[in-house]
């Protein structure tokens, strides 16, 4: 518990491997001197309890290296009770029933996208499919123009995929944030000026939202739409890319997915368990002894969700994908009040993508090892090839 870790100047190996090493170094936490210094919790139980204990761990921080952020992403950076009021507004858009109603269109879209790729015999799975399908679904839910997708993806990349080498002074991130917030400000103004009474999208609904009977200021609406923008254009694509990387590297699992499509819903849960991409942070509201860690008020803690479900104490052979595993509990969608409201949609999209791909392209191989990015983990590319039909 007294282990102090100072990160190397450049990442070594895969990001999941780096996180696993924290767990191997010390439990239930490691203290790192990176930035201003922060805790990294490494045990399943500490991670779960910390995410559930909002009175001790404030959500005012999402990146442990930015401990006093000058931004407020809504609702992910809100604490109770205000957080719950925003969740009620958003929850209606991601219910199981509404999600299920979108499935047929998602299947049609996935089949169409894959048909266009199939005859080429190769693709970059990330760029050509994983980022495209969930982004189109998201833009339709939000009521945003599909023709601007490429521009949106550039902005999203600037916000979430930079690091100390590519964006040392965070200027690219700041530029991306400014562009997205300016865009949503203009979009809200346009929707107010030209309301469509038949519109069924989040942006059109947002201009009518109230909290405690008071209309929500545009600044807060923009921060909420920004948060949805980042989640909608990034998380499903990141998960789907790791899924396909695993299947390309493990042909026995790939063959089972292709020959036993009924296994796919279970496989989605097992792959989510082994490859959770979200990392988040919290700030201590008071001094406390938390799982043996002498936490001080104002200290920041890193909560990598992968270390919960890849913990051998919680799951036998936790870092290994086992498509026959009977229990696939995981924290890939978080826990506590901030558990992802889009979990039903994410699961459905991942299952549709896996099913439709393997129906049309059951045999494929990795061309070269891809590279990664994180705060929210993901692959920059995933080059695949297969025999043309």
Question: Would you write up a description of this structure?
Answer:
- This protein starts with a strand and ends with a strand.
- It contains 15 helices and 15 strands.
- Helices cover 47% and strands 12% of the residues.
- The chain has one domain: Cytochrome P450 (Cytochrome p450, Orthogonal Bundle).
- The strands form five sheets. A six-stranded mixed beta sheet has the order 1-2-3-11-8-4, with helices on both faces. A three-stranded antiparallel beta sheet has the order 5-15-12.
- It has 389 residues and is an alpha+beta fold.
- Belongs to the cytochrome P450 family.
Secondary-structure topology with pairs:
Elements: E1 4-5, H1 15-25, E2 29-32, E3 38-41, H2 44-52, E4 57-58, H3 82-91, H4 96-101, H5 103-118, E5 122-124, H6 125-130, H7 132-142, H8 149-160, H9 171-193, H10 202-206, E6 210-211, E7 214-215, H11 218-249, H12 251-259, H13 264-274, E8 279-284, E9 288-290, E10 293-295, E11 300-304, H14 306-309, H15 343-360, E12 365-366, E13 372-373, E14 378-379, E15 383-385
Helix pairs in contact: 5-15, 7-11, 8-9, 8-11, 9-11, 11-12, 11-15, 13-15
Overall pLDDT confidence: 91
Terminal CA distance: 56 Å
Tell me the count of domains. Answer: 1
CATH superfamily: Cytochrome P450
Strand order of the largest sheet: 1-2-3-11-8-4
Q: Which fold name is given in CATH as the topology?
A: Cytochrome p450
Poorly predicted sequence stretches spanning 5 or more consecutive residues: 1-13
Number of strands: 15
Q: The biggest beta sheet, please?
A: 6 strands, mixed
Question: Secondary-structure element order, as H and E?
Answer: EHEEHEHHHEHHHHHEEHHHEEEEHHEEEE
Number of helices: 15
Overall geometric form:
globular
The level 1 CATH classification is Mainly Alpha
Based on secondary structure, the structural category is alpha+beta
The CATH architecture category equals Orthogonal Bundle
State the helicity in percent bands: 40-55%
Radius of gyration (Å): 21 Å
Proportion of residues in β-strands? 5-15%
């Amino acid at each position: 518990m007294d282990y102090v870790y100072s990160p190397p100047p450049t990442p070594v190996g895969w990001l999941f491997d780096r996180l696993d090493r924290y767990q191997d170094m010390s439990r239930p936490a490691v203290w790192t001197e990176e930035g201003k210094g922060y805790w990294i919790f490494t045990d399943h139980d500490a991670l779960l309890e910390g995410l559930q204990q909002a009175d001790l761990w404030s959500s005012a921080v999402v990146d442990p290296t930015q401990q006093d952020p000058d931004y407020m992403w809504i609702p992910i950076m809100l604490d109770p009770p205000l957080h719950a009021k925003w969740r009620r507004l958003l929850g209606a858009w991601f219910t199981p029933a509404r999600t299920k109603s979108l499935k047929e269109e998602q299947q049609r879209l996935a089949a169409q996208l894959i048909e266009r790729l199939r005859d080429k015999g190769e693709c970059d799975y990330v760029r050509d499919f994983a980022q495209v399908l969930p982004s189109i679904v998201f833009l339709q839910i939000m009521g945003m123009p599909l023709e601007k997708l490429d521009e949106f993806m550039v902005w999203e990349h600037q916000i979430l995929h930079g690091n100390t080498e590519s964006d040392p002074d965070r200027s690219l991130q700041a530029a991306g944030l400014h562009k997205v917030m300016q865009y949503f400000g203009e979009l809200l103004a346009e929707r107010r000026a030209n309301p469509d009474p038949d519109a069924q999208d989040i942006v059109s609904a947002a201009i009518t939202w109230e909290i405690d009977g008071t209309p929500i200021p545009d600044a807060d609406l923009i921060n909420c739409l920004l948060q949805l923008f980042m989640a909608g254009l990034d998380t499903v694509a990141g998960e789907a890319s790791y899924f396909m990387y695993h299947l390309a590297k493990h042909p026995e699992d790939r063959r089972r997915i292709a020959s036993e499509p009924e296994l796919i819903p279970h496989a989605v849960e097992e792959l989510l368990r082994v490859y959770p991409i979200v990392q988040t942070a919290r700030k201590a509201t008071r001094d406390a002894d938390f799982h043996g860690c002498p936490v001080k008020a104002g200290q920041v803690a890193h909560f990598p969700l992968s270390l919960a479900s890849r913990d051998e104490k919680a799951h036998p052979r936790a870092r290994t994908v086992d498509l026959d595993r009977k229990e696939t509990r995981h924290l890939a969608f978080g826990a506590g009040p901030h558990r992802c409201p889009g979990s039903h949609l994410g699961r459905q999209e991942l299952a549709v993508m896996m099913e439709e791909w393997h129906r049309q392209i059951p045999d494929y191989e990795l061309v070269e090892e891809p590279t990664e990015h994180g705060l929210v983990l993901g692959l920059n590319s995933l080059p695949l090839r297969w025999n043309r039909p």
